[in-house]
Amino acid sequence: MKNPCAYILTNKNRSKFYFGYTTDLKSQMIKHSKNQCQDNSWPKECKTLVYYEKYVSEKDALFRQEVMTKSSLFQIVKWIEKMNPRWKDLPKYWLT
User: What is the CATH number of domain 5-94?
Assistant: First the structure.
């Protein structure tokens, strides 16, 4: 079953962000954690999932990822803090 998502990763200092989309968020986070992600634009230190949105279609998730990429830092922080005010690493709660 596909579960399209757009997501935001950050590094420990919250100084870099990576915006992605996938149809299997859990598997994608495992790939990121093991440095097995195939995307060359992904900064290897960005492994903390701080935000994600689920979609019905892969097309919508891709569009949202593109919007996120072009958004201001202020807007990005606003989205993250609304969903995840303490900037916790979200996969730690579902990958254990």
Answer: 3.40.1440.10
SS3 label, residue 91: helix
69 — alpha (psi -120 to 50), left (phi > 0) or beta? alpha
pTM, two decimal places: 0.90
C-alpha 72/C-alpha 74 separation (Å) is: 5
- pLDDT value at residue 96: 47
* Helix ranges restricted to H, the chain: 25-33, 58-70, 73-83, 91-94
| Domain spans of the chain, in order of start | 5-94
**Tokens 């803090």, residue located:** 81
